[in-house]
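Journal club prep — side note

Before the paper discussion, L.F. wants everyone to see what a predicted structure for a comparable chain looks like in token form. Sequence:
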Amino acid sequence: MTAIATNPVIADPAIRARMLDAIRFDPRGLVPCIAQQHDTGEVLMMAWMNREAAEETLATGRVCYFSRSRGGLWRKGETSGQQQRLVELRLDCDGDTLLALVDQTGVACHTGRRSCFFLALRDGALAEIAAPEVPPEELYGR
């Protein structure tokens, strides 16, 4: 078994470019990225990255996404404080999906839950399987 990287920051732009060039971005310039807690395997969320977000993530070690609704970079936790520190960035076999192994501070979901995957089909109905840990208005001041 291969050990997980201890320093995910890639200071050399040429090395970052090798990873970025291997990613198959869609026609909009985006790639889906699954965020997974590095030590527990818990799937936290899915968001989109463009090349700039992926490069910033590799350069800084702080996970950055592309917000389709805002039309720009979204540095996870810039509003809520619930940041993700990159442990390792992985690329799938087709080159069209990223897996970010992260160390999540607090909750990952804008609903105040640890994971965005809190709905499940149970007994023929969609059920909430996790309660909010933090009221969303505390995260965003709304």
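L.F.'s comment for the group: Residues 13-22 form the longest helix (10 residues). Keep this in mind when we get to the figures.
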